[in-house]
Each structure stands twice: as C-alpha cells, then as structure tokens.
Design a protein that fits this description.
By secondary structure, this protein is an alpha+beta fold. Helices cover 55% and strands 18% of the residues.
C-alpha cells in the first residue's frame, strides 16, 4: 500500500471520526486534515491529478482556517471588572468571553435607590434589567406577587413578547443593576445568532420558573 492510498484511507477515516466530535474547534481541525489527505490522494492516485476535488478541498481548508481563527479570537481572554467576571462565571458561561464583552458594551450599570417604579404595569418597557445586587418587588394591580433578587431579570416578558408590562416592578431597597436598552440590545442579538439563542434561553428559563412558582402559590 503506497503513501497516496494511505492518505485516501486517512481522509475518509478522519471524516468518519469527525461524526463523533462535538467540539466545533476540533471538528474543523479534523476537517482540515481530512481535506489535505484528500488533496494528496486525488493528486497521486489517478493517472492525472483530479483538479476539481483538489480545488474544492483547498477551498474547504481555507474556509475552516478562517473559522478556526474566529473561534480562537472569540475565546481569547478579555479584561473584565470584578462584577462582570462574577456575572460571566455565574450566568453567562454559555457565551465566549468576547461575546459577553459585546453584550456588556451595550449595557449600563445603574443604581436604583427609590421606591419609584422601574417598570409600570400596562406601559411599554424600554429596558431589560438584570439585578446584580438587591431586590425588586413585583406587583400586579398594586398587590405584591413576587420578589426578584440577584441574578434575575426585570422586564424579560416584555423583551420576549414586545408587549406592555404585565406587572409593576419597584425597588424597595437599594439595587444595583445592569441595564440594556431593549431596541439596541435586540439589534445586537439579530446580528449575532449565537448570542440571540443564549440570551433567549436565559430569559425563557426565568419566565418558565416564574410561571411554575406562581402556579404553586
């Protein structure tokens, strides 16, 4: 068995093995080696080189190298404040550090220290709010129905449905929050599908948990 034949077996073997790989970075690396072995096979085995598969495999290699560069870039360490690092490690591990940096750039840290409503029942909701430290009372028709604490979102239902607030939310004690302008945040998520699905999952999980809690009362 000559080297070209071995290259052919390696090319198909790596393709078969790639079906078992879940990590996208390793999958792309395997794909590059499979394409290179395929180029070697199609160059030496036929009487004349088969330029069509050779050309396409070279394109596959270039595309995969580009995407590997993007993955490595997005996974690189980024500078975070202590508060951002805590949020990332506790809530946003599904994002790469660079993706997390993107969503914090369109957000603003705010401190609420008055009992005035931050969201009013029946009115449009302009912001999506994440409680970093503090507590927020949830009132429906002036009756307290729940209390939101650290790591919970305020206005998540309106963010998902684009409908007016279904409850009034008040800060009875000091609260520090990360605040996203709804429209600007949605525009960012539309440009980044992976971000969209991760954030939507977080918000949907809280909505689901709130519904379960309400049904048990």
């Amino acid at each position: 068995m000559n080297i070209a034949t071995i290259a052919g077996h390696l090319a198909f073997g790596l393709i078969a093995f790639s079906f078992l790989v879940k990590d996208i970075l390793y999958l792309r690396i395997l794909s590059i080696f499979a394409s290179l072995f395929s180029v070697l096979y199609n160059f030496y085995i036929p009487i004349e080189p088969m330029w069509l598969p050779i050309g396409w495999n070279i394109i596959f290699v270039i595309v995969n190298i580009y995407h590997i560069s993007v993955i490595i870039y997005e996974k690189r360490p980024v500078d975070m404040t202590d508060k951002e690092k805590e949020l990332y490690e506790t809530m946003f591990k599904g994002l790469t550090p660079v993706e997390f940096l993107k969503i914090t750039k369109v957000a603003e840290w705010k401190k609420f220290n008055t009992p005035l409503p931050i969201i009013t029942q029946g009115k449009p909701v302009k912001d999506l709010i994440l409680i970093y430290n503090g507590a927020v009372d949830v009132l429906v028709n002036d009756t307290k129905v729940a209390e939101l604490k650290d790591g919970q979102f305020v206005g998540e239902m309106s963010f998902l449905t684009e409908k007016p607030a279904t409850a009034t939310c008040k800060v009875e004690h000091n609260a520090e929050c990360l605040v996203w302008p709804q429209q600007e945040f949605k525009d960012l998520l539309k440009r980044n599908p992976s971000l969209y699905f991760t954030i939507q999952s977080l918000l949907s999980e809280q909505v689901s948990n709130n519904l379960v809690s309400s049904s048990q009362k």
